[in-house]
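Below is a complete specimen:
___
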Amino acid sequence: MQRSHPRLPSAFVADTVLKRDIFGEIAFGHLEGAPQTVVTRRRVDRSARWARPLAWHLAGREIRALEALDAVAGTPKLIGVDKEALYRSWIEGTPLHVAKPVGNVAYFRDAKRLLRQIHRAGITHNDLAKPQNWLITPDGKAALIDMQLATVFARRTRLFRLLAREDLRHLLKQKRSFCREALTPAEKKLLATKSLPARLWMRTFKPIYNAVTRGLFNWSDGEGTQDRMDTEGKAIGARLASDPAILAHALSPFPYPKRQGVGIYAFVETAPGNDAPALEKRLLAAAAPRPDVVQAVERLPRDASGRVREDLLRLVAINQVDRIDALAGDADADALAATRAIAANRRNFTDRRLKG
């Protein structure tokens, strides 16, 4: 790294690995002597040796973007850079695909405000089609993470305006998924008119990109999700939904402790009269695709509308159980109690084997 970047005031202590792939490792932790200072580490020196130049290039893009966004709330803050990794502040929040903010017009209004601020700072994110890059904070605000593909512009060039338009179009795609009825006529028109570069990308380069990254490299550029949830997860979910011994279920990815990729953690609410240990054993012995971890529970946490709180279960799956109370909120006493009971008997203990 040629430029001077901030250095960590103290050593990083890893608590949980969120993701591990050919481009490195992302871990959640804190600074030594300051357990309340929550930090995310993107460790580039854990990348495959042949992929390291590209991994540092992607890290460099994120570093430059975070430096330019230092004053923008709702984006991570750059805490430090060393020869191994970059370190950024942790943003408490739930990914969009987990929170599923159906009808939450206020969230998308705030997301649009945040995107405008990012563009005013001369930054285009370039990766907003992925719902996992959008967070909903505990107070209902929007936040953005994963700036590996971000571009920093000194001037509002034609390319900047084009990429900013694509950022907005991808935000509106998220809004269409959860608040279709709230789309304005102007937003519908923008959604219906892809730019020429976007059309060329979809028809030519994207299929090649997907074939190389997902096929050859077995890599997905979504933080902490991977493609396994989109492929095997759907088949596993369909099987669980049709099982008469299961009243409800939720699937959550979790990182393997010492290798690339993710496992699938299945939380299943058992129907009355079924033996939980026997159900777990049967599901783990099923034909592939099958979950890697199964936990049968008396009841899953739900919100006031009866929807399963997948955001809370995700914390159990990735061993961030100390964050459950903060995410549940005071108004969700029943969901909190159910999640605490599940966490007390969780099946994934990779955090106990984590080495920084």
Remarks:
- The radius of gyration is 21 Å.
- Residues 219-226, 352-356 have pLDDT under 50 and may be disordered.
